[in-house]
From TrEMBL:
<keyword id="KW-0560">Oxidoreductase</keyword>
<feature type="active site" description="Proton acceptor">
    <location>
        <position position="280"/>
    </location>
</feature>
<dbReference type="GO" id="GO:0004459">
    <property type="term" value="F:L-lactate dehydrogenase (NAD+) activity"/>
</dbReference>
<feature type="binding site">
    <location>
        <position position="159"/>
    </location>
    <ligand>
        <name>FMN</name>
    </ligand>
</feature>
<feature type="domain" description="FMN hydroxy acid dehydrogenase">
    <location>
        <begin position="2"/>
        <end position="385"/>
    </location>
</feature>
<protein>
    <submittedName>
        <fullName>L-lactate dehydrogenase (Cytochrome)</fullName>
        <ecNumber>1.1.2.3</ecNumber>
    </submittedName>
</protein>
<feature type="binding site">
    <location>
        <position position="28"/>
    </location>
    <ligand>
        <name>glyoxylate</name>
    </ligand>
</feature>
<dbReference type="InterPro" id="IPR037396">
    <property type="entry name" value="FMN_HAD"/>
</dbReference>
<keyword id="KW-0285">Flavoprotein</keyword>
<feature type="binding site">
    <location>
        <position position="280"/>
    </location>
    <ligand>
        <name>glyoxylate</name>
    </ligand>
</feature>
<dbReference type="GO" id="GO:0010181">
    <property type="term" value="F:FMN binding"/>
</dbReference>
<dbReference type="InterPro" id="IPR000262">
    <property type="entry name" value="FMN-dep_DH"/>
</dbReference>
<dbReference type="GO" id="GO:0005886">
    <property type="term" value="C:plasma membrane"/>
</dbReference>
<feature type="binding site">
    <location>
        <position position="131"/>
    </location>
    <ligand>
        <name>FMN</name>
    </ligand>
</feature>
<feature type="binding site">
    <location>
        <begin position="311"/>
        <end position="315"/>
    </location>
    <ligand>
        <name>FMN</name>
    </ligand>
</feature>
<comment type="similarity">
    <text>Belongs to the FMN-dependent alpha-hydroxy acid dehydrogenase family.</text>
</comment>
<feature type="binding site">
    <location>
        <position position="278"/>
    </location>
    <ligand>
        <name>FMN</name>
    </ligand>
</feature>
Length: 385
């Protein structure tokens, strides 16, 4: 029996990842900003939502299929964009994209990914989105849009909650950089995690694949990559910039990082076809409202004018069902699949998606719903007759 056979939930995968990864790598996945209050609220606030099941319903077949960005999905959750997956396992983004395609869901590639737009597209036959920021260098934004279009990505996701970088104190204490500089992170800790160290030594050089050519063209050292991309974040971005990006892309377009109903309406007015309710996993503004607490008001503000997706805090299938009951049309998961990747590469990602799929199907059946599309809010304790 492999270690994955004994992983019965996402927290089990988290423990396996913590065992395999050096502290700096694990903390990069696991940590948030400052006191991590918002990160913990993302989980805690799910517990305040209670489901009231219906009984004597035929749930011999449970349908998890839904749609997002015009694509048909077999399961009601998608893969959030996360940076530098090669830090956790050399299988990196390609394995995550392949696992998503196998599971029948959408994969989102981050601008900060360690695999290029083109390589992910070549290795995954499933639906894909590319995540960008509004950069100071508008030519860089336009370059990404054109590359994603040529690689036939299905959607574009604009992340708007990073006008400046969040204060992630775990990373500061660990000397974490992108790409990682191992000398700053404690050689003894790396050596204690020898399996990870062997993978790191054998793997190709880690890089921010989608912007590396910009550094190469400038004949700069690769260690300046994170500084380059951080300096590109624009604190002067406005809704007009979002409209310009939406018009240039011309396809399904989501704005990620929305927590206020007024911003949800502004996103739609700026050309978004979807909003992603997210506080960046609690990695930006500590003290911000949790994603699940912000969801109902945003779903009400958007109504039928666009798609509303939830990102942040999901660890159980019950969380996904609760999000749908509160108005989400789909969910994004980040840490769950990263724990799987850190624990066992692509096989670990498969396991994470399998766990959440199995749990969601079970929760739907126990709630008395034979389809995720039947969830309408009447399952919530506050909506009982």
């Amino acid at each position: 029996m492999s270690m994955l056979d004994k992983a019965y939930n996402i927290d089990d995968l988290r423990r396996l990842a913590k065992r395999r990864l050096p502290r700096a790598m694990f903390d990069y996945i696991d940590g948030g900003a400052e006191d991590e209050a918002t990160m913990h609220a993302n989980r805690r606030d799910f517990a305040s939502v209670s489901l009231v099941p219906h009984q004597l319903v035929d749930v011999s077949e449970v349908d998890l299929s839904t749609e997002a960005f015009g694509a048909k999905l077999s399961i009601p959750f998608m893969i959030s964009p996360t940076g530098m997956s090669a830090m956790f396992h050399p299988d990196a983004e390609s394995a995550v994209a392949a696992a998503a395609a196998k599971a029948g869901t959408l994969y989102s590639l981050s601008t900060m990914g360690s695999t290029s737009i083109e390589d992910v597209a070549a290795r995954s036959c499933g639906p894909k989105a590319f995540q960008i920021y509004a950069f100071r260098d508008r030519d860089l934004t336009s370059e990404f849009i054109e590359r994603a279009r040529k690689a036939k990505y299905d959607a574009l996701i604009l992340t708007v909650d990073v006008p400046v970088a969040g204060n992630r104190e775990r990373d500061l204490r660990n000397g974490m950089t992108l790409p990682p500089a191992l000398g700053l992170m404690g050689v003894l800790d790396v050596l204690r995690h020898w399996r990870w160290a062997l993978d790191y030594a054998r793997a190709p050089r880690m890089t921010l694949a989608n912007v590396a050519h910009r550094i190469d063209e400038a004949n700069a050292d690769i260690s300046t990559l994170s500084g380059y991309i951080t300096k590109q974040f624009s604190p002067a971005m406005t809704w007009a910039d979002a409209r310009s990006i939406a018009d240039e892309w011309g396809g399904p377009f989501a704005i990620k990082g929305i927590l206020h109903p007024d911003d949800a309406r502004a996103a739609l007015d700026s050309g978004a076809s979807a909003v992603i309710v997210s506080n960046h996993g609690g990695r930006q503004l500590d003290g911000a409202i949790s994603s699940i607490a912000a969801l109902p008001a945003i779903a009400n503000a958007v109504g039928s004018q666009g798609e509303v997706f939830l990102d942040g805090g999901i660890r159980r299938g019950s969380d996904i069902v609760k999000a749908f009951a509160l108005g989400a049309k789909g969910c994004f998961v980040g840490r769950p699949y990263l724990y799987g990747l850190g624990a066992a590469g692509g096989h670990g990602v498969d396991k994470a998606l399998e766990i959440l799929t199995t749990e969601t199907r079970r929760v739907l059946a126990l709630t008395g719903r034979s389809s995720i599309k039947e969830i309408d809010g009447s399952e919530l304790a506050d909506h009982r007759d």
